[in-house]
Amino acid sequence: METLGKDIKKLGFGLMRLPMLGDEVDIEQTNHMVDLFLSNGFTYFDTAYGYINGKSEEAAKTCIVDRYPRERFQLATKLPAWAVSTAEEAKAMLTTSLQRTGAGYFDFYLLHSLGDNRTQAFEDYGIWDFVMEQKAKGVLKHVGFSLHDTAEALDEILTKHPEAEFVQLQINYIDWESESIQARKCYEVARKHNKPVIIMEPVKGGSLATLPEPAAGILRAADPQVSMSSWAMRYAASLDGIITVLSGMSNIAQMEDNIKTMKHFSPITNAERAVLDSVNLALAALPRVPCTDCRYCVKGCPVEIDIPGVFTAVNTIQLFNNPTGAQGHYNWVTRSGATASKCIECGQCESVCPQHIGIIEELKRAASVFDR
Ligand code: SF4
Ligand code: SF4
């Protein structure tokens, strides 16, 4: 079991934040990114039923499946059973994913975002049995799940479902000892169960690529030649038992930088770990909303507030001290009229937020700054 993925290179292309032209995926740029990725020996692509309202899976077809032999790459996607009301709707998501991608089969198939009140939907709808049946038919090669919850919850799921072949976890150097994300504890539970790990959010939604001072200065002083995200990617990829490290790349420059880092990957040294410890200390001293822009909160908001968009504006002030830019961004993301002050405090968003952010209180603070 532990050897699953040992031949897969340790950079995976996350198709969650593809380059966009308006509401549509920028196919030309994505094609270029896919070509660069594959021609440098990388093979693992990660999409999901819900990414970019289905346009990510469609782009996987256009940019990968229709342009390369199927055996040239691995394609992963995910089933979010908690997003629908019946077992039939949940199971139909696999059919839809197969149609959208044209992939014929999925190399890796994940029950998407187990944790909190989402885990039970997969039990209620019989999804575990369903995916094992599909695996027996060859439609799915390997079955696992992604998790946004505690290490204790992960332990319970892996004990109940030893048929899971792998887990996908949020791991990065700032969340390693975080009590809310529990990256280290979750990783240790996965290893205890002898499950290989796919790492997501190694750069924490891009946050670790654009560090504020003084954190950025610490990395520049340690090595002025490399990007900030390269530190984060190498940190994640240095762990044992990893299938791959996903990076949700949005442009060619990010792709080139990741290839440069990961093509001839060297594990992070103890001296470099000490540098990252210093960065963690510097970041811990700065206030910010820890939103990763996963957008799980947005779908169920009755007044349709773009919650992560508002938090981006808040963090633009908190981290970069740029109130003009922050107000401009806020005005853009609330242009429909769904401003932070329209929140009716129903709590739906907080029940699904994997980062456990106190969204209602944060929106009140945002309203006091931006809705004047
Ligand atoms: S608490 Fe406010 S922001 Fe959250 S879902 Fe309800 S209305 Fe939307
Ligand atoms: S507020 Fe939470 S659920 Fe919403 S986008 Fe941010 S991290 Fe995700």
Account of the 3D structure:
It is a single chain. Helix 6 runs parallel beside helix 7 (183-192) and helix 12 (307-320) crosses helix 15. The mean pLDDT is 93. By secondary structure, the chain is α/β, with parallel strands linked by helices. The chain is globular and about 60 Å long. It is built from 15 helices and 10 strands. It has 2 domains: 12-284, NADP-dependent oxidoreductase domain (TIM Barrel, Alpha-Beta Barrel); 307-370, no CATH class. The chain starts with 11 loop residues before the first strand and ends with a helix. The chain binds iron/sulfur cluster (SF4) (2 copies). The site of one iron/sulfur cluster has 15 residues, from helix 14 and helix 15.
Features:
single chain; 372 residues; alpha/beta; TIM Barrel; 2 domains; eight-stranded parallel β-barrel; two-stranded antiparallel ribbon; 15 helices; 44% helix; globular; binds iron/sulfur cluster
Order of secondary-structure elements: EEEHEHEHEHHEHEHEHHEHHHHHH
Radius of gyration: 20 Å
| Ligand list | iron/sulfur cluster
State mean pLDDT (0 to 100 scale): 93
The largest sheet, given as strand count, sense and whether it forms a barrel, is: 8 strands, parallel, barrel
Which overall shape is indicated by the principal axes computed on the Cα atoms?
globular
CATH class of the largest domain: Alpha Beta
Unreliable segments of 5+ consecutive residues: none
Number of individual domains: 2
Q: What structural category do the secondary elements indicate?
A: alpha/beta
- Ends distance: 57 Å
The CATH level-2 architecture of the largest domain is identified as Alpha-Beta Barrel
What is the name of the CATH superfamily of the largest domain?
A: NADP-dependent oxidoreductase domain
